[in-house]
Amino acid sequence: MWGARRPKRSPVQCRMTWLAAYLGLWLVLQLPTLGTGTRVVYKVQEEQPPNTLIGSLAADYGFPDVGHLYKLEVGAPYLRVDGKTGDIYTTETSIDRESLRECQSQLPGELCFLEFEVSITDLMMNSSPRLLEGQIEVLDINDNTPNFASPVITLAIPENTNIGALFPIPLAMDRDAGTNGVASYELLAGPEAQELFGLQVAEDQDEKQPQLIVMGNLDREQWDSYDLTIKVQDGGSPPRASSALLRITILDMNDNTPKFEKALYEAELSENSPMGHSVLQVKANDSDQGANAEIDYSFHQATDMVRRLLRLDRTTGLITVQGPIDREDVNILKFSVLAKDKGANPKSARTQVVVTIKDMNDNAPSIEIRGIGLVTHQDGMANISEDVPVETAVALVQVSDRDEGENAVVTCVVAGDVPFQLRQASDTGSDSKKKYFLQTTTPLDYEAVKEYTIEIVAVDSGNPPLSSTNSLKVQVMDVNDNAPVFSQSLTEVAFPENNALDDLVVEVSASDADSGSNAKLVYSLDMDPSSKGFFSIDPDSGEIRVKTVLDREQRERYEFLVVAADKGSPSLKGTASVAINVMDRNDNDPKFMLSSYNFSVMENMPPLSPVGMVTVIDADKGDNARIQLSVEQDNGDFVIQNGTGTILSSISFDREQQSTYTFRLKAVDGGDPPRSAYVGVTINVLDENDNAPFITSPSNASYKHILPHTSPGQQVSKVKAEDIDSGVNAELTYRIMGGNPFELFQISPQSGDITLEKEILRKHHGLHRLVVRVNDRGKPSRHGTALVHFYVNETLANRTLLETLLGHSLDTPLDIDIAGDPEYERSKQRSNILFGVIAGIVAVTLVIVLVVLVRYCRQREAKSGYQAGKKETKDLYAPKQGNKSSKSKSKVKKSKSPKPPKPADDEEETGLQKSLKFNLMNDSVSDSPRIHLPLNYPPGSPDLGRHYRSNSPLPSIQLQPQSPSASKKHQVVQDLPATNTFVGTGDNNSTGSEQYSDYSYRTNPQKYTNKQVGELILSPPDAPPLHRGAIWTEVWE
């Protein structure tokens, strides 16, 4: 409690108050200047021989290997660094992983690192050193053999132990780690114990725990002890091994084993705890009584440090402090406690104990100041030139605190008003260990201050906080540190082109704050190669003159440096920039980029469309380069836009009317006097596919006569067409689109030649209309269509019919083929039917003739009365009057005229009439029966449109139409000249212009329908066979 009087403040409290003021200033001003370092990591096996290369900073991490100095700051005596290359080597002091202080208190599985620091100083730039922080991971090698704590291990096992019971065996220890640590255990037993005991290895908290397993019944009276050998081996290559004697003592019966209340005991112990301070108490219970229930506690698998720092009461299990506890030496104690009863056959149990050492703020921060890079320290003093750059490091300050947590968080500041500050050298450090560069904050001036004493204060964050101080003297060395200074850092001059030689451009001046020879100045020019030789400067006065005639069009601006150097040692220089802008004069004509312009445009473009663009330049500047464009010989077809140089058309182009336009452009600048230039422009109008091909021949109404015997492959016609477009738009192709169903003709796609491809057959006779399409190759393509007519026939006698067919063709849609006679096939079929009917009639007639001959043979009178040239009596064809039941045969009386046929012949005549389908009628002109036959045969060709009649002088019966047609306008019987007469008779003695044959009906189909009607005339029986015939009549509808 506070008394009535305020106690006097101690020196430490005064220092803490003073430190708090500087701490706030440091937090505001110094933290933004913190820097970062570079972390380097290497790996090396322990126990390497001296001068073994661990790594190269230049080769491995890309640090420079020329003009830099490498210096090992931390890492001795295990490491050394080559000052030029940064190669890191081992030294005579071998790196032993198990002996390194940093790795002695590590837990299993943790990596072992050896830390080092290297500074890199640029010898050329004379800049602040760069600090590299690195770690070398020390890799374990198998250089330690696993060993048991004692060469003899004793285990006591009751004789009544159940088979399968397990008894722990003390662990073997190996200073190596990882795979080089303990890997396996092996139990070697003699014949007497081989079947009684076995070994089982359990994994317990990353440890291999050997356990003895009872495999048989034990009998103390037979054998009271057994000596076995237990062997341990690590996993190194080659492996290391050792063994111990395992002595097993068989005890009398002890029923119960002690049991701990907890399997794991944990406690925290503050460092610096007093002797006898209670840490924790372990407790085990035994259900037996008497000596079998008394428990004896002991350490199990405890290190020497545990046994040195802690004491275990063997009776109560209380663990107390018996040595100085320092967290900085050890931060955790981990061991086992064994509880064993005091029975004749003692039984034991084991528990794990973990004691964590809690930090107390019992360590003040430590401040270490050492040289860095080229700056060396001697007797606490550093020498530094006054011309060093700002932020030059003069020392490396390392602040650390052995405490942890908040007790180790250290704040470090520079005390006093000095031009130095601390900048964090690396961001990889911890709160308890930090590195700083002590560097300058302002330029040093020997003339102002020659020496500084820098005090560095470090304070941790404990309660109460602890602090420490350290100081460094810095001595400033004098140099020629004042460079010449120009009155203007940049001087700009406007100077006209086309000048005279040695004209004065400008005069510059500089001053030097130094005195004596350090203030005497010499001027010179520092120019790039492109400006050398144009200007010169007087070294004493600083006058700059021109040495050549300047041309603004060649170069408009010159920039160079003026250097003022003092005569100090070393000499200092000051520079200023000079910029000379060359003023323009109108000494250049406008210039078109091309000597002439040719533009191509598509036709049919709308007016005021751009057709081209010209570019004109003027090497001058300002008004001298402002150009006006105009069209010379302006007829209003074209205009030009000033500014863009775009030529616009006032008209819409039609290439077929005019394909080329030529004119001139004039360019005038705005100088005084003005200058001008001309250029020719040609506009070429490109074709657009706006015209379809035009058929020049043949005309649609014309035709070509082709004889039937024309040979295949012969050219029969040619289609000619023109296209007033040009290029591909005028390239034409020919193709037959219709009218060629027989593929009788073929047209050349390029020339339009039409050739006959096949032999002309009878069905091809007649008119053919080819639909030929002529396409150009434009996109989109345009086409024209031509109708090409061919007339296939022997003659052109019937021109009226041909003209009618041509007229009908022009009226017929193009998708309907006109090729030959369309009725040809149907006519052919009807002709076949007619031939069949005629054949049937002939067959029936022959049968009748045979019958008549047989009857005449029986009637001799009839034979004697036969006259040549007479037919049989018409009674043969007259309808029968008698009964069908009459006798089929009767005697014939001898007479000149034959008797009427017997009723028995009715059946034959009736069948004959049915087969011929005759219509028997009486005619007023003749007594012979009139037989009407429908003969619907179309004409074979226009030349076959004839009307046939008999040329016999004998009377005959005229043919009549099968159907009534008297009312039809065009159904008439015509008498044609003898040349168009065809006579059909029963023998070969008839005469006429053409012979009757089957080909008379195989004609080409026509586009027009017609009917043929006719009458078959049967002459009276007494008429000679020569005069039998038929008359054919064609009627066109």
TrEMBL record:
Residues 952-965 have a biased composition (Low complexity). The chain crosses the membrane at residues 833-854. One of its GO terms (biological process) is homophilic cell adhesion via plasma membrane adhesion molecules. GO terms for cellular component: plasma membrane. It is found in: Cell membrane. Keywords: Calcium, Cell adhesion, Cell membrane, Glycoprotein, Membrane, Phosphoprotein, Repeat, Signal, Transmembrane, Transmembrane helix. It holds the Pfam family Protocadherin. GO terms for molecular function: calcium ion binding. SMART domains: CA (SM00112). Residues 36-148, 149-260, 261-367, 376-486, 487-592, 593-695, 706-824 form the Cadherin domain. It is a single-pass type I membrane protein. Residues 886-899 have a biased composition (Basic residues). Its main location: membrane. Residues 977-998 have a biased composition (Polar residues). PANTHER family: CADHERIN-87A (PTHR24028), PROTOCADHERIN-1 (PTHR24028:SF247). This is Cadherin domain-containing protein. It comes from Gopherus agassizii (Agassiz's desert tortoise).
